[in-house]
Design a protein that fits this description.
Elements (H helix, E strand, L loop, with lengths): L1 E15 L6 E3 L26 H8 L5 E4 L23 E3 L4 E3 L5 H11 L2 E6 L6 H12 L5 H8 L10 E4 L14 H18 L4 E4 L12 H10 L5 E8 L5 H5 L1 H22 L7 E9 L11 E2 L10 H16 L4 E6 L9 E3 L5 E3 L3 H10 L3 E8 L2 E4 L3 E4 L1 E8 L4 E8 L6 E6 L6 E9 L19 E3 L5 E2 L1 E6 L3 E9 L1
Parallel strand pairs: 1-20, 2-3, 2-12, 3-6, 5-11, 6-7, 7-8, 8-9, 9-10, 10-12
Antiparallel strand pairs: 1-15, 4-5, 13-14, 15-18, 16-17, 18-19, 19-25, 20-24, 21-22, 21-23, 21-25
Helix pairs in contact: 3-4, 3-5, 5-6, 6-8, 8-9, 9-10
The protein binds alpha-L-arabinofuranose (AHR).
Alpha-L-arabinofuranose binds next to loops.
Protein name: non-reducing end alpha-L-arabinofuranosidase
InterPro entries: Alpha-L-AF_C (IPR010720), ASD1_cat (IPR055235), GH (IPR017853), Glyco_hydro_b (IPR013780)
Family: Belongs to the glycosyl hydrolase 51 family.
């Protein structure tokens, strides 16, 4: 059997983990909102129409921040359509997804829903068809206590206390020709900077995210990011990154996505640091990976001008779940610069959670690695020295066959280790050396694997792809050996003895 070693030393801490790295995303897209989180006639809906079966499923994911309301949707969205008496709200054409938007769910409903779901909002403003002034009015509506036109309107609408949203995104993917009123880098840089000034005048306590390139494949990447950062450096706190992967027939390359994401993050860090040097700035720009996931974008089917159509309802397989696990290792290993990240998205549209409007909730396979890392990958992240072989991939060349992540939480005294074995034919005997952490007791071992990499969960068979709990007799030690099955994702939890 193949062997490998992973040595983790408590003196080699990468960073404390900002919990917002386990964020997610709800866009007005397909059935994410309507018949997803909001469905007044559903059996589990509360008096506000929020589905509690969905809230419960989200709560188990432990998601501290949720981006809203888009996405592409926000670039043509007038937030004022979604406030005030519901019967007076207009139905509009949503240019992003060619859907009908009834505006029955708006910023106030989102604030209430987020509170009930135990999460916070990351609010995106419209920098497509919208203006800096309208973005400022939204911040005034949400974050000013009272005594101004928009804050008093909010009070009139029944919200005496401000929502106090802390994180604001300056538009969405404004380099994309698919965006309502896309901009050149120079146009966006000016618009984002002027909007940033207004938003921070309205509320100096907020944090701002500037749009980076919408993907690494854009012709303007990474020049867009350089232009935007040079123009906005002292006005914003984060640059955004978006990254999606899909299986295109080559399993090895798909499983190696974790390696590509690391490369992408490295490039954006370098670009941001160039802008820092140019500005002679003391501030280090942090990264917000505010869209990431597996997404079968080529299978998108858009029906025109329907309300709550099924869009991007990907049914994720075991293979997809393994890829999501690998991506999580990369994200958290970069926690020194990636302070926020959003699994895109959360419900129905390219999401781990699927709802039946007439029934219950289904957890797709990708739900599980996210749940494990979000719940247990807390505290601090440590550097791993991995001695293993590489695999030759068509897309990325030589890639290490193991992707690993080690976190230690001093609150719970628990160490968590996550590992993806991307080898398609061979199990690997891993020796995990944790000597510097002192004596540890193995609490739990969970493995996600299976013969059929394309197996999926369904309402008929909801537990076809779930992690298996391996019986452990709670060994104590400083070095442990585990068999990592071919094409598998493993979580190990230890407690300091
Ligand atoms: O998450 C789906 C879409 O992907 C978002 O609306 C957009 O920002 C990205 O292209």
């Amino acid at each position: 059997m193949k062997t490998a070693q992973c040595i983790v030393n408590k003196h080699f801490k990468i960073s404390a983990i900002d919990e917002r790295i386990y964020g997610s995303f709800i866009e007005h897209m397909g059935r994410a909102v309507y018949t997803g989180i909001y469905q007044p006639e559903h059996a589990t809906a509360d008096e506000q129409g929020f589905r509690h079966d969905v809230i419960d499923t989200i709560q188990q994911l432990n998601v501290p921040i949720i981006r809203y309301p888009g996405g592409n949707f926000v670039s043509g969205y007038d937030w004022k359509d979604g406030i005030g008496p519901k019967q007076e709200r207009p139905t509009r054409l949503d240019y992003a997804w060619f859907s009908l938007e009834t505006n029955q769910f708006g910023i106030n409903e989102f604030a209430d829903w987020a509170r009930k779901a135990g999460t916070e909002g990351m609010i995106a403003v419209n920098l497509g068809s919208g203006t800096p002034q309208e973005a400022g009015y939204l911040a005034e509506y949400c974050n000013i206590e009272q005594g101004t036109y928009w804050s008093d309107k909010r009070r009139e609408h029944g919200y005496q206390q401000p929502h106090n949203f802390k994180v604001w995104c300056l538009g969405n993917e404004m380099d994309g020709p698919w965006q309502t009123c896309a901009l050149t880098a120079e146009q966006y840089a000016d618009k984002a900077r002027e909007t940033a000034k207004i938003l921070k005048w309205v509320d100096p306590n907020i944090e701002l995210v500037a749009c980076g390139s919408s993907s690494k494949e854009m012709a303007t990447f990474p020049e867009w990011d350089r232009t935007v950062l040079e123009a906005c450096y002292e006005h914003v706190d984060y640059i955004s990154l978006h990254r999606y992967y899909e299986y295109e027939g080559d399993k090895a390359s798909f499983l190696a996505a974790y390696h590509d994401l690391d490369d992408f993050i490295t490039t954006i860090k370098a670009t941001a640091d160039y802008a820092k040097a140019k500005h002679r700035s003391d501030k280090t720009m942090m990264l917000s990976l505010d869209e990431w996931n597996v997404w079968y974008i080529k299978h998108m089917d858009t029906k025109r001008w329907q309300w709550a159509p099924s869009i991007a309802e990907d049914v994720y397989s075991l293979l997809d779940a393994l890829v999501v696990g690998g991506l999580l290792t990369t994200i958290v290993n970069n926690a020194d610069r990636v302070k926020m990240a959003c699994l895109a998205q959360l419900v129905n549209a390219l999401a781990p959670i699927h709802t039946d409007p007439q029934g219950g909730v289904l957890r797709h396979a990708t739900y599980y690695p996210f749940q494990q890392v979000s719940n247990y990958g807390r505290g601090e992240v440590y550097k791993n020295r991995v001695v293993c072989d590489c695999i030759e991939t068509d897309k990325y060349g030589q890639v290490a066959e193991l992707a690993t992540l080690t976190t230690f939480d001093s609150q719970t005294n628990e160490l968590a280790f996550f590992v993806l074995n991307i080898h398609l034919e061979e199990d690997i005997d891993l020796q995990l050396r944790l000597e510097e952490f002192g004596e540890l007791m193995l609490l739990e071992q969970q493995v996600l694997t299976g013969e059929d990499l394309f197996a999926v969960n369904s309402f008929e068979n909801p537990n076809k792809v779930v992690p298996q709990h391996i019986d452990v007799d709670k060994p104590v030690g400083t070095s442990f050996s585990f068999i990592l099955p071919k094409a598998s994702w493993t979580m190990l939890r230890f407690k300091r003895a």
